[in-house]
Design a protein that fits this description.
Number of strands: 8
Radius of gyration: 17 Å
Strand order of the largest sheet: 2-1-3-8
Order of helices and strands: HEEHEEEEHHEEH
Helix content: 25-40%
CATH architecture of the largest domain: 2-Layer Sandwich
CATH class of the largest domain: Alpha Beta
Distance between the termini: 26 Å
Number of helices: 5
Oligomer: single chain
Largest sheet: 4 strands, antiparallel
CATH superfamily of the largest domain: Hypothetical protein ph0010, domain 1
Strand content: 15-25%
């Protein structure tokens, strides 16, 4: 599943779902029917929905780990990004036409014991030990020119752990990949930018 990629057709379905959901929620406080939860649509993937208005952030809410089928997560995050982001007042139905929607879909987390499985620039890392946990998305390592070791150390620091904590057998290391797409541009945007929107 880690290497499965959403086709442009499936991306359009999810983007339409997000827009239709926001519109119906704002108009009638109801949710439209979901696409069939099969294949990747049925996987429990983390996802974020980001809204922009005239190039400016207008809302962004997501989950690192999916609590249900992807289509349900997209629908819930679409509503949340439009109405529950504490930094903004709720999107109105009148301004929805000016909103561009972007979706970031994360692959399921996969625990590893061999750090050589980490592909810098492809994988993000979720590091956890006890009550400490931290995550860095895939693009961060590329942007800063980190090698695998530096990426691991920085994720440890993000989790509030010593930089060499990744070598401790009690530290849990999970990896994931991300696919980002939007209505305005079918491009990969900075995962680091997404991470810092929250």
């Amino acid at each position: 599943m880690e290497h499965e990629v959403l086709t442009k057709e499936k991306q359009k379905i999810l983007l339409k779902l997000a827009r239709d959901t926001i519109a119906l929620w704002l108009k009638e406080h109801k949710r439209p029917p979901l696409p069939e939860a099969k294949g990747l649509f049925g996987e429990h993937c983390g996802a974020f929905v980001t809204l922009h208005k005239k190039g400016q952030l207008r809302g962004c809410i997501g989950n690192m780990i999916g609590q249900g089928p992807l289509v349900e997560t997209i629908q819930e995050m679409a509503i949340a990004s439009a109405t529950q982001d504490p930094r903004f007042h709720s999107v109105t139905l009148e301004e929805l036409a000016q909103i561009d929607i972007e979706i970031s879909v994360l692959s399921p987390m996969r625990q590893i014991t061999d750090v050589n499985e980490i592909q810098v620039g492809t994988h993000g890392i979720l590091m956890s030990r006890g009550m400490f946990h931290g995550v860095l998305l895939p693009q961060v390592a590329t942007e800063y020119g980190w090698d695998r070791t530096k990426f691991l150390e920085q994720t440890c620091l993000k989790a509030g752990l010593p930089p060499n904590a990744w070598q401790d057998p009690q530290t849990k290391i999970e990896i994931f990949s991300a696919q980002v797409f939007g209505e305005k541009k079918q491009i990969l945007i900075s995962k680091f930018e997404i991470l810092n929107k929250f």
